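User: tokens in, sequence out, please.
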């Protein structure tokens, strides 16, 4: 099986991904087989945990997508564990200062470039190498989603070794005093513009979280390089509601007749 790394993510334009919040390997494999560039296993607000993380990452890779992980918090131990398990990158939530960005990057890189401890118990198999230089070729993506993060945006973006900045629209909106995912609010648009400009200045990938393809298409056109198109739980609930609605309409027609 061909092993894809984060270096392969942009071979055909922007990286298009799916978000995996259900901690089930079979579903993770289905997402990986969908044609998405990457699948992010969500440990912060999803059901994935230490006990099933390896299985989740294996399933995504078997499906054919690049496996990445949103860790619970900006903790070196959690970041290293996800990378050792075979994640090709980590999304680190709530990065608000340059020091926090440096902390996240350091956990992804082996000495002398970082503080990552060597123990790639599955990563070496997934990457096909035990070379620390090669194993360090993973993405470190910081989430800027608070007012403090915006205030320190330039310093965060200037962090050596950072791969990209990813926007969580709900938390960013809340941080701006708006309702979750206020995509069209002027303050939200201004914040996105600032983040994209910072990413351009420092040659970082700009990423954004979406819930369906229409919104994702908008941000692809706006130049975002990493676009999560949808979250599987939302899609599942919406699809089930639609199909049940059709069936209920048929029942209502019988009753009316």
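Assistant: Sequence out:
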């Amino acid at each position: 099986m061909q092993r894809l790394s984060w270096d392969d993510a942009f071979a055909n334009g922007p990286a298009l991904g799916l978000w995996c919040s259900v901690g089930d390997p079979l579903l993770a494999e289905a997402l990986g087989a969908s044609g998405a560039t990457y699948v992010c296993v969500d440990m912060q607000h999803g059901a994935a945990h230490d006990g099933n993380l390896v299985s989740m990452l294996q399933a995504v890779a078997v499906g054919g997508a690049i496996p990445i992980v949103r860790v619970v918090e900006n903790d070196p131990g959690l970041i290293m564990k996800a990378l050792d398990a075979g994640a090709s990158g980590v999304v680190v939530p709530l990065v608000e200062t340059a020091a926090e960005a440096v902390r996240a990057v350091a956990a992804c890189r082996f000495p002398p470039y970082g503080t990552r401890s060597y123990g790639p118990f599955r990563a070496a198999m997934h990457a096909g190498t035990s070379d620390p230089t090669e194993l360090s070729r993973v993405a470190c993506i910081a989430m800027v989603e608070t007012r403090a993060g915006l205030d320190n945006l330039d310093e965060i973006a200037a962090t050596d070794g950072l791969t990209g900045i990813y926007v969580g629209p709900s938390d960013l909106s809340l941080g701006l005093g708006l309702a979750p995912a206020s995509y069209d609010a002027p303050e939200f648009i201004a914040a996105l513009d600032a983040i994209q400009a910072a990413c351009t200045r420092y040659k970082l990938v700009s990423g954004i979280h979406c819930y369906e393809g229409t919104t994702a298409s908008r941000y692809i056109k706006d130049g975002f390089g990493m676009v999560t198109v949808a979250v599987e739980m939302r899609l599942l609930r919406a699809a089930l509601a639609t199909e049940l609605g059709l069936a209920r309409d048929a029942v209502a027609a019988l009753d009316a007749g």
